[in-house]
Structures are given as C-alpha cells and as structure tokens.
User: Fold this.
Amino acid sequence: MSEMINAMRLDKGTEVPVLHVRIRGNGECVQTFWAEGRRLGCFRCLLQAEHKHYRQERFPVLKELPTRKQLGCNGFTPYAVSAPMAAAALCLEVVVDWLQYGRASPRFRTSAMANANVYGVKNQDVSRLAACPACGPRDAQATAIRP
Assistant:
C-alpha cells in the first residue's frame, strides 16, 4: 500500500507531503519516512533497485526474522502495545519538526526499543537511487519500457 501511495504522489507531482510510519519486526523498532518533492529519495528508494539485490532493504534494521502467528485463516506479527505508541511518538516528532522548522529533516528516522536486537540505522535524508523504478530519471524509465 505504501508503494502505491508513493507512486500516486510521484505521478501527480503533488507538493503535499506523505508521512509513512511502520512498526518493524515484533516491535523491536519503529520507523518514519517523510516523502515530499522529488529532490531526495522516495519511499521506494528504501529498497534496492539493482538486479542483484532487487527489493532488499537498503537500510536493514532487523537481525532476525520476526515471529509470525496463525489464528484461523489469518497470519499476523505480534508486538507489544508499546510499539504503536512508539510509532505515534516518532510520527509526532516529525510533524512537530515540520511545523516548527518548515521541514522534516532527517526525513528517515528509526527508533529502537531498549535492548532490541537490531542494527543501528542512522537517521538521515535518504538520497535518490539512480535506478529507482518510482522516482528514477523519467528518460531511463521510458527507455526501459520500450521494446
């Protein structure tokens, strides 16, 4: 869903920012990504675009695969009540920065829970990937689509 929203934002060329917020793994950490304009990377730039590592995380954070549970026909990833609260708090930090300073920088932020077994990911303004299928150069995309 996030990639679809990202593509719609880029296709329409809107100046309205989009704030993506996600809980990673079993709540070990939360991340936000502020998408605005075309100067810096888009949400899809968080995944590799080159063929050898296609769709692998550009900034991996989880050291282990999350535990999954099955309940009837539904699968889910369990996490503590504190994970959505931490996601909301990080989201509010980004919005407050935007309101106070007129920009949300760094645009990509990660907040890990205490004693979480995760890789350290630096808060940063993500650069665009040259081969990004969403925000890469329009000329390259048009050439790639033609036979």
User: Anything to note?
Assistant: The first strand starts at residue 18 and ends at 24. Residues 139-147 have pLDDT under 50 and may be disordered. The longest helix spans residues 82-101. The CA atoms of residues 7 and 134 lie 6 Å apart.
